[in-house]
């Protein structure tokens, strides 16, 4: 029988692990666990006539979430997130394939094109799109100069413009997991499929797509979930005509001064996130792939 470790030996072995894990655990407790608990408690609180938070237990905040105006925004959020995710997949897949299958030095350049946007704040970049698409922006100036239009076209403050902004911000989050999945694809399988007489389209749907489905799904989660909370994109490009759930939360904490209701909306958004991640795990997804 193996000799049982002494108390001194157990402490000696566990101390280095505690040194490594301790700071990370403390960081997670302070910046993740405690704020989540606070938001959860706040979601069951009330406000008085002066909009001060009172710690009186109530379910009113959650019942108010079934308001018809809120439901309209929930549906609108899902529609915007769906089309944003769909466009990201359609655009990012061939781009990721190009990066993964490029063998020359251009591969690093293409990969850098995905990383470079992270060097600039997304809020500044969205304001750039607003300037570009404005009635006096470069796009309208070019269209009028080439006589495609007689006057300025109003591109801003529409749902389609909001989707464009979402795709622009979240496109890299779709490329990175797709690139990882495609790069792991064994080229011998493609050659075997061709040798057996399969056409390229058949090879793509029967071989490539199933083997890269994990990258597609993880990319969809990394795009769909943030899209529900990117309130600044819909504020700047949508002008209040394409609100998402994040806009509701932001207004409750800012102009509405109703922190309990904003907390309840935040909890719902967190539950949606956990549900999607759970579905991903049930489908055999690897949590590491969500990190890109």
TrEMBL record:
<comment type="similarity">
    <text>Belongs to the binding-protein-dependent transport system permease family. CysTW subfamily.</text>
</comment>
<keyword id="KW-1003">Cell membrane</keyword>
<dbReference type="InterPro" id="IPR035906">
    <property type="entry name" value="MetI-like_sf"/>
</dbReference>
<dbReference type="Pfam" id="PF00528">
    <property type="entry name" value="BPD_transp_1"/>
</dbReference>
<feature type="transmembrane region" description="Helical">
    <location>
        <begin position="163"/>
        <end position="182"/>
    </location>
</feature>
<dbReference type="GO" id="GO:0055085">
    <property type="term" value="P:transmembrane transport"/>
</dbReference>
<feature type="transmembrane region" description="Helical">
    <location>
        <begin position="73"/>
        <end position="97"/>
    </location>
</feature>
<keyword id="KW-0812">Transmembrane</keyword>
<feature type="transmembrane region" description="Helical">
    <location>
        <begin position="109"/>
        <end position="128"/>
    </location>
</feature>
<feature type="domain" description="ABC transmembrane type-1">
    <location>
        <begin position="74"/>
        <end position="280"/>
    </location>
</feature>
<protein>
    <submittedName>
        <fullName>ABC transporter permease</fullName>
    </submittedName>
</protein>
<dbReference type="GO" id="GO:0005886">
    <property type="term" value="C:plasma membrane"/>
</dbReference>
<feature type="transmembrane region" description="Helical">
    <location>
        <begin position="259"/>
        <end position="277"/>
    </location>
</feature>
<feature type="transmembrane region" description="Helical">
    <location>
        <begin position="12"/>
        <end position="38"/>
    </location>
</feature>
<keyword id="KW-0813">Transport</keyword>
<keyword id="KW-1133">Transmembrane helix</keyword>
<keyword id="KW-0472">Membrane</keyword>
<dbReference type="InterPro" id="IPR000515">
    <property type="entry name" value="MetI-like"/>
</dbReference>
<feature type="transmembrane region" description="Helical">
    <location>
        <begin position="203"/>
        <end position="233"/>
    </location>
</feature>
């Amino acid at each position: 029988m193996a000799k049982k470790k002494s108390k001194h030996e157990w402490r000696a072995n566990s101390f280095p692990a505690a040194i490594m894990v301790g700071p990370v655990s403390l960081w997670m407790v302070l910046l993740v666990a405690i704020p989540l608990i606070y938001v959860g408690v706040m979601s069951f609180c009330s406000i008085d006539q002066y909009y001060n938070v009172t710690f009186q237990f109530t379910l009113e905040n959650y019942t108010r979430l079934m308001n018809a105006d809120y439901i309209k925004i929930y549906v609108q959020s899902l529609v915007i997130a769906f089309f944003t995710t769909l466009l990201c997949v359609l655009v990012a897949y061939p781009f990721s394939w190009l990066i993964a299958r490029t063998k020359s030095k251009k591969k690093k350049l293409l990969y850098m094109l995905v990383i470079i946007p992270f060097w600039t704040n997304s809020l500044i970049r969205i304001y750039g799109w607003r300037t570009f698409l404005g009635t006096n922006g470069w796009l309208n100036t070019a269209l009028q100069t080439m006589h495609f239009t007689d006057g300025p076209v109003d591109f801003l403050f529409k749902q389609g413009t909001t989707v464009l902004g979402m795709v622009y911000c979240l496109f890299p989050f779709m490329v990175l997991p797709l690139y990882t999945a495609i790069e792991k694809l064994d080229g011998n399988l493609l050659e075997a499929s061709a040798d057996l007489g399969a056409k390229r389209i058949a090879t793509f749907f029967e071989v490539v797509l199933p083997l890269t489905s994990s990258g597609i799904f993880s990319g969809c989660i990394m795009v769909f979930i943030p899209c529900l909370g990117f309130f600044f994109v819909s504020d700047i490009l949508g002008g209040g005509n394409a609100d998402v759930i994040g806009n509701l939360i932001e207004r409750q904490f800012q102009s509405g001064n109703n922190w309990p209701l904003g907390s309840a909306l935040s909890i719902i958004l967190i539950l949606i996130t956990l549900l999607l991640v759970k579905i991903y795990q049930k489908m055999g997804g690897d949590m590491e792939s969500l990190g890109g």
